Amino acid sequence: MSVVLAWIVLLPLCSFVLLGAMYLFSITQRRIAQRYFTFVALFSPAVVFVLGLAALRELILLGHALHYRAYVWLHVGDYRIDMGFLGDKLSLFMVFFITLVSGLIHLYATSYMNKDEGYGKFFAYFHLFTACMLLLVLADGPLMLFIGWEGVGLCSYLLIGFYYQNNANVVAGNKAFIVNRVGDLGFLIGLAMLFFYGQSHDFSYETLALHIGAVPSEILTGIAVALFVGAMGKSAQIPLYVWLPDAMAGPTPVSALIHAATMVTAGVYMVARFHFLYDLVPHVGIFIAYIGALSAFFAALIATKQSDIKKILAYSTMSQLGYMFVSVGLGAYDSALFHVFTHAFFKALLFMGAGAVIVALHHEQDIFKMGEMRRVMPVTYATMLIATLAISGIPPFAGFFSKDEILSVAFGSGHYELWLIGTVTAALSSYYMFRLFFVVFEGTHASHSRAHDVDWVMKAPLIVLAVGATFAGFLGLPELLGGKHLIGEWLAPWRREAFHLSHVVEEILIALNVVAALLGIAIAYRKFRFYDRRVAYKPEGIVYRKFYVDELYDVLFVQSIQRLSRFIAETMDKKLVDRVVMGMSRGFVAAGTRIAWVQNASVRLYAFIMIAGIGAASCYLLAVLR
């Protein structure tokens, strides 16, 4: 048993309590200096990262998964649920880059949020967010996973609406919370079915995996689909993706944490964790793969017309998550997790680089009001170029290896339409990302009278992440390129059965993927490398309007529910319920008024009633006795 697993979760949770108490004391009693909040905010992620490495080392030395049972949560008869933690290769793989990237984002946020009135509250929420995600990945069973799952949903709501003085931010937070509750209803139904039919005596992953084969196939299909509905919401896939672009309302470090290290990748992790279930229902996997492919293409298409720098990156996250779901849907869990790993580096770098530009331009987010930032921010320019090349799939940067592997899986499994959609999406991805890059950092006729560079506290994490975005892919270097695919070997239990592709076919696929990416870059270069800001950009069209999906949802769900609510309030409640209840109350009042004359404080009347009552009772008794 390894208690270090518990401390990986407990330390950020304790930091949340401490930071929250310090913040409340600061605003109610005596102001606490910001440096004390900073110390706690940075100390906890650093220690948690070290603890994660220690657990990883212990796993390697022991050669088997780590377990820690904190206490018995529920024990009824032979059924028992423990509050326990599981440190296997999958969970500790996730812990490694979650703690690493989260720590860098915390450091970055100390500068980004500097002098903010809610500085202490922000980091309290940040630590709770990290604790919930770590609980999610270290849970040894579905119930504990669900606690972490709901915890990250709560924290996203708190952080998206952090600047609640602006009503739009509150609406965005509510939207994220409500849409995720829709998905979580499906997830909860899936857990209930799994609990009822799983034939497990302790509801842990290991026991469920042993008994899941005895469950009827139609029930397994229902469980798998219901659980994936939760993943649709959490990981922003069609049709439950509409919350993600609006989630950009929070501070930029929140966006980096949500998109790179927590929350949105939870759905991919969940499907991989339940691989023993999804392996038995491959038809559900195909459904997941198609949802992922369509989500990837749809989001990439919308991103090509957006002008808000953070929303472009939000749609890019949805698109990259689509690739991951293509891979898990086809059973290649290790390939999906490899992309989760590389994505954490370049997506955190993209958001943090965008945040640096936003700060430099005094919180301007419209890319067409930026330009020539290369001269003002050379470090941010270089790191953003690396991240943009990585997400575009240009070798030898990290995104190339993981994205190419997913496309090879799609082609090798015989689903050529998925490969085609993925390749076209790759071209769109490189186009919209270099569109953003050229407009922001290149172009002509931009005014920098108000622009300024950011400090090294913000630049240092960008450099570290740029190293990761450059070299992380080499941990999954394929055999074709002379590598051993170390991540694939590490995640061997989650590795797809090998399919046979000749080296010639693999080389052709790699060439096609690179050509698609270069084509997107070439088009973006031609259109936006020398973009003249004197020519006003007028966003318009159905793609810019996101195909009016938000408006459609508003009509179908929001307005219809509002109309139903008004009908219930005005017709059912006022005209029916109120009329019945108020009619009964008026009847009681009238009856009370009529009999109130006997309660008039007249002693003579009371005496007369008593005598009359006694007389009537006496007459009755005499009649009975005769």
Structure explained in plain terms:
By secondary structure, the chain is mainly alpha-helical. Helices cover 71% and strands 3% of the residues. The protein contains 24 helices and 2 strands. The model has no long low-confidence stretch (mean pLDDT 90).
Number of strands: 2
What composes the largest sheet?
A: 2 strands, antiparallel
Number of helices: 24
What does the overall shape look like?
globular
Measured by DSSP, the beta-strand proportion falls in under 5%
- Rg (C-alpha, Å): 30 Å
Summarize this structure as a short list of keywords or feature phrases.
single chain; about 625 residues; mainly alpha; two-stranded antiparallel sheet; 2 strands; about 70% helix
Short characterization:
The chain is mainly α and 626 residues long. It has 24 helices and two strands. Among the domains are: 264 residues, no CATH class; 75 residues, no CATH class.
Sequence-ordered SSE layout with sheet pairings:
Layout: H1 4-28, H2 34-62, E1 66-76, E2 79-87, H3 89-112, H4 119-138, H5 142-160, H6 167-197, H7 205-211, H8 217-234, H9 243-246, H10 252-261, H11 266-273, H12 275-278, H13 282-303, H14 309-329, H15 333-360, H16 373-376, H17 378-392, H18 398-412, H19 416-441, H20 456-471, H21 486-490, H22 503-528, H23 549-595, H24 603-625
Antiparallel strand pairs: 1-2
